[in-house]
Specification:
Blueprint (H helix, E strand, L loop, with lengths): L2 H12 L4 H16 L3 H12 L7 H5 L1 H20 L2 H29 L4 H29 L3 H27 L19 E5 L8 E6 L2 E8 L2 E6 L13 E3 L2 E3 L6 E3 L5 E3 L8 E7 L2 E6 L4
Antiparallel strand pairs: 1-10, 2-3, 3-4, 4-9, 5-6, 6-7, 7-8, 9-10
Helix pairs in contact: 5-6, 5-8, 6-7, 7-8
């Protein structure tokens, strides 16, 4: 696909007005499950966002339906060409495995998508619609296969495969171009390796946070119980400004989507971020707060 054709695809998606009301209703439904059910909802959100994995769950599980359905397509071709039952059984099993993986991919994808806005939100809706259509085609295909209607079942599987490939293309764009599901915090190489002055010590009162720049990299400083902490300012989830968030006991909450990070070492306490927040070591010298990469916690 050429660059011009690619741009035309996303221009068409931008014009799809149906995505707005449907997206709002879908987001409200997800929020009722994850936000309005207390601790169980929070635990489910942490699982779906990949807090336990240290990496977003959605891109990891999308490989299951893509791989399974690719294998099913190959075995369907072999089945049609040879009539060997072993290919038919393998294809049916691969379709079933793909359906299980697609269910988890859809649920984890919804958890990620609900925090998007603008073009990524609209692309995500079309991406989800294509994947949902492919899942329906494969589910119908499996039902037909079980009834002995293999020819029609294979035809629906091939249609589902073409549909899932279109959805995968949009998913790749969301990740690589729109940077959904990637780490938005600075890399360790961007942080100062040696202690560097960041802020006069007197300018950081107890119980408050400040945004500073150290060698061009935004850093959040916080003082709690007399100790100075430092984390990268840009939230790893989608780049929210941590210094504008809420300072809690030994943690900070991002003001954009509620990711909560430990002040001690930057690890994720609550999703949607699955990535730990880069943490910096601090010290006070000659009335200046100094920072360098790495934490002693």
């Amino acid at each position: 696909m050429s660059q011009t054709e690619s741009l035309d695809v996303f221009h068409v998606i931008d014009q799809q007005q149906w995505t707005e009301p449907l997206g709002d209703a879908l987001e409200q439904g997800v929020a009722r499950v994850l936000d309005d059910t207390g601790q169980p909802g929070k635990q489910l959100a942490n699982f779906l966002h990949g807090k336990w994995l240290g990496h977003p769950l959605h891109p990891a599980v999308t490989d299951v339906p893509l791989g399974a359905w690719t294998a099913a397509a190959a075995m369907d071709v072999a089945d049609a060409a040879s009539g060997d039952d072993k290919y038919a059984a393998g294809s049916d099993a691969a379709v079933a495995v793909g359906l299980v993986g697609a269910t988890l991919a859809a649920v984890s994808g919804l958890a990620e998508w609900r925090h998007t806005q603008g073009r990524p939100r609209r692309i995500g809706m079309v991406h989800a619609s294509l994947n949902g259509s492919a899942t329906f085609l494969y589910a119908t295909s499996l039902a037909l296969r079980s009834q002995g209607k293999r020819g029609l079942g294979r035809a629906l599987s091939f249609a589902g495969f073409a549909t899932i490939m279109a959805g995968a293309y949009l998913g790749g764009h969301l990740s690589l171009k729109e940077r959904i599901g990637v780490d938005h915090s600075p890399s360790e190489d961007e942080l100062p390796s040696e202690f560097t002055p960041a802020l006069p010590d007197a300018d950081l009162p107890e119980g408050e946070m400040r945004r500073v720049e150290v060698k061009g990299v935004p850093i959040m400083l916080a003082r709690q119980h007399g100790r100075v902490y430092a984390l990268a300012e840009s939230c790893a989830h989608l780049g929210g400004p941590l210094s504008e968030g809420e300072l809690k006991e030994s943690s900070v909450v991002c003001p954009w989507h509620g990711s909560r990070f430990s002040l001690e070492d930057g690890h994720v306490l609550d999703s949607p971020s699955a990535f730990a927040q880069p943490c910096l070591e601090t010290r006070v010298r000659d009335g200046q707060i100094e920072v360098r990469s790495g934490c002693l916690g």
